[in-house]
């Protein structure tokens, strides 16, 4: 199949087909979608080598996450890759293992091989991200840096819902087990939970920083028990699962003695016993939206284009790890 076959089948000029693949911002969305659908049906694949020589672009994108083993990330990665493929791009995925030095090195390495980078929950300081983002199109997920486009999940709303849920169950003393240092999500949770607790007239103890892992939750168990809190909000589902394990080892039962809320709504939380009450995060939509923003940024390079910020909704999923307040675990 050739580009002329696609143009004839789609009822457009050959130049329109070319722009749909190489400069989609110049084509109406409905026209672009029709051209891409026809191309897929006919099995047409553009010559990427020739296109790279013409446009100076690789049609490759980078996607960097802090821990690929965390079940929060695979749905986001899968959605990002699938959407990029539809748009004629490929995605290189890299994992920093929660190491800020590795994160900066990966950005610098990928910058030589890709047209732009999606940086998910970065741990680098804002000024470092801004400097690196000045050399290459960036889109951030769950981080705000002036001058860079971002896709945010409404963590603040989720933390507020978690506090209100626990307060409604009669818990007058809560603990927030925060995440790692440098986490935008953890900072947002802390601010929103603090406001919500004050509005509800209940006490909130903030514990952290903590590793965003099951082991991090286990290690936080003793500190949680020392607070005497009967309701706990964990940084993510992994921390919540580790906390439940640590409490069980001390014969403190969830939710009889302590109620626990996670964040992310991962498969691990749904399979855990008790099944985890959690804040559902829109991971797959975030992956698609971030790639869409990045491609638009790449394809409008050299033109004046304002940065974009999109906030995606979160919700509370109530399961078995929360219940009405009982005797204090402390």
What does this structure look like?
- This is LacI family DNA-binding transcriptional regulator.
- Residues 1-55 form the HTH lacI-type domain.
- One of its GO terms (molecular function) is DNA binding.
- By secondary structure, this protein is an alpha/beta fold.
- It has 3 domains: 3-53, lambda repressor-like DNA-binding domains (434 Repressor (Amino-terminal Domain), Orthogonal Bundle), CATH 1.10.260.40; 56-153 and 283-312, Response regulator (Rossmann fold); 155-281, Response regulator (Rossmann fold, 3-Layer(aba) Sandwich), CATH 3.40.50.2300.
- The protein is 46% helix and 17% strand.
- It contains 13 helices and 12 strands.
- It has helices at 3-10, 14-22, 29-42, 48-55, 73-86, 100-110, 126-133, 155-168, 184-200, 214-227, 237-249, 267-271, 283-299, and strands at residues 60-65, 90-95, 116-120, 138-141, 149-153, 173-177, 203-207, 231-234, 259-264, 277-280, 309-312, 315-317.
- The strands form 2 sheets. The protein has a 6-stranded parallel β-sheet with strand order 2-1-3-4-5-11, with helices on both faces. The protein has a 6-stranded mixed β-sheet with strand order 7-6-8-9-10-12, with helices on both faces.
- The relative contact order is 0.13.
